[in-house]
Specification:
Strand 17 and strand 18 form a beta hairpin. The chain is built from 18 helices and 18 strands. 34% of the residues lie in helices and 14% in strands. The protein has a nine-stranded mixed β-sheet, with helices on both faces. It folds into two domains: 126 residues, no CATH class; 298 residues, Adenylosuccinate Synthetase, subunit A, domain 1 (Adenylosuccinate Synthetase, Chain A, domain 1, 3-Layer(aba) Sandwich). The protein is α/β, with parallel strands linked by helices and 486 residues long.
């Protein structure tokens, strides 16, 4: 190979590498990054630079001789007869002169103390392949109250604008999306799964019910190339569910899906063989991919990412009214941490709030509650105010995961202010505008909402210090008024 390379160099004055590269470039349908491994003489480099100009970047790799000799011994190249030692390689005069190319290189990397992965990271950074790392490609959706704000409906509407949809949290949160002939509820997959063709990711901080996720994968006909499940996502066991049913369900009206106990086991039982993660579930193995690697690739390619949070800020383990909280941080910061996304990559934060916040009904145990609500109401009063059918209202207002009745209250302005402080939303999505007046169901534009609703929205914007850019007027295919400028 050395001899043949030198023959081509003599015949073409080093231009044969350039000619092959031009031919390869012409075959590409779009701009690509091509790595030429490797050049051995200055004429090869000069001819490539003349052909491609400033797009050429020359990286010279070097290492101490003893390390190169050790690496050479480990080479396994099928179909070629190798020299016995690296010193024999260096007897070739062209090979000996390669080290002098360091003088003309754009960058010199000494690989002596670097792994292969280290070299890739260093070379890629010089090539600008990480240049989009700080580009804000991620939009995040979170709940601003106690969950059930209508996040699924909003997420499904927005999903078609993104290349990748990411879901965190666990099966204790059900996100219902409008479909004909009946709605579909997502507990594990992103809510835009059926309304878009985006790639799907379940992040490392997620808690997974094997049966629920497997059922959703089957129902949505998701293939292995579309869905990535992080190997470190936690698996919920039957014992986790039993433990929650014995305590949390009766004490604070937990959904009893085992998420809290699974989370605690993840911490307490570290290193124990009985602890299962997604990588340990045979039926998930075709979907197992590291979220970090998937997102790193996506960001380098300029892909748009939508991160769907679950539950609501008022249920945050740290920022809600303890102990009437869930088992995770439900703010933007918590969702980003569970997904493994830096805050510096966030472009938009959409905080979803409903016109009348809800919580699950109190436990059937005297003196127990599911948590504080500032000004409780009943569904009869809301139906009277809006002109809605109270029986239909009660039927609709049942929880997505456990089908329990919901409690309802007046809009909590203090909660809105705190949620806005914790999440710094760029946009507010206001849902259930029809609960303010049934006339809003007919509205397809902002100016078609009734006057009281418009004034309410203006007040929300003042308190939250963010515009209300998405308004849901019902639960159908044309029920979202979109006021965004992005």
């Amino acid at each position: 190979m050395q001899d043949y390379g030198e023959y081509l160099d003599r015949r073409t004055k080093g231009g044969w590498v350039r000619d092959a590269l031009i031919h390869l470039a012409e075959e590409q349908k779009e701009d690509v990054t091509v790595v030429v491994d490797a050049v051995r003489i200055l004429n090869q480099i000069d001819s490539i630079r003349r052909a491609f100009g400033p797009r050429v970047f020359h990286i010279h790799l070097t290492a101490p001789l003893d390390i190169l000799e050790a690496r050479y011994k480990q080479r396994q190249v099928e179909g070629f007869k190798e020299f016995a030692t690296y010193r024999e390689v260096m007897e070739n005069k062209t090979e000996r002169k390669v080290r002098k190319l360091a003088v003309v290189a754009d960058v010199l990397i000494n690989t002596g103390r670097s792994t292969q992965g280290d070299v890739v990271a260093r070379a890629a950074s010089h090539l600008g392949l990480y240049g989009r790392e700080n580009t804000r490609l991620v939009d995040v959706l979170v709940g601003g109250q106690y969950g059930s704000e209508g996040k699924g409906h909003v997420a499904s509407y927005l999903a078609r604008e993104y290349d990748i949809l990411v879901r965190v949290g666990g099966p204790n949160a059900g996100h219902k999306v409008f479909e004909e002939p009946k709605p579909f509820t997502f507990h594990q997959l992103p809510s835009g799964t059926r309304s878009s063709e985006a790639k799907l990711i379940i992040g490392p901080g997620a808690n997974i019910s094997v049966t629920r996720l497997a059922a959703e994968i089957a129902a949505c006909q998701i293939d292995k190339d579309r869905l990535s499940i992080d190997p470190r996502a936690m698996i919920i066991e039957k014992s986790d569910i039993r433990n929650e049913e014995r305590g949390l369900v009766n004490n604070i009206s937990s959904t009893g899906q085992g998420v809290g106990y699974a989370t605690s086991r993840r911490i307490i039982h570290r290193g124990e063989s009985s602890l299962r993660m997604a990588k340990d579930v045979a039926e998930f193995r075709p979907f197992i991919r590291d979220t970090y690697e998937e997102l790193e690739k996506a960001f380098s390619e300029g892909k748009k990412v939508f991160l769907e949070g679950t539950q609501g800020t008022g249920l945050s383990l740290y920022h809600g009214i303890y102990p009437y909280v869930t088992s995770r941080d439900t703010t933007v910061a918590g969702c980003l941490a569970e997904a493994g996304i830096s805050p510096g990559r966030v472009r938009k934060v959409i905080m979803v709030c409903r016109t009348y916040p809800i919580r699950v009904a109190d436990p059937d145990v005297k003196g127990k509650t599911s948590g504080f609500m500032s000004q409780p109401l009943d569904w009869d009063e809301i139906a009277r105010r809006a002109g809605l059918n109270v029986d239909q209202l009660r039927e609709a207002e049942r929880t997505s995961t456990t089908d329990r009745k919901r409690r309802v209250a007046e809009f909590d302005w203090q909660l809105l202010r705190k949620a806005a402080f914790l999440n710094s939303p760029t946009d507010i999505a206001l849902t259930f505008a029809d609960y303010l007046s049934k006339d809003n169901m007919k509205a397809k534009r902002f100016d078609q909402l009734n006057d009281d609703t418009i004034r309410f929205i203006q007040e929300v914007e003042r308190v939250a210090l963010a515009p209300v850019t998405l308004i849901s007027t019902g639960f159908n295919s044309r029920s979202i008024i979109d006021r965004r400028s992005w």
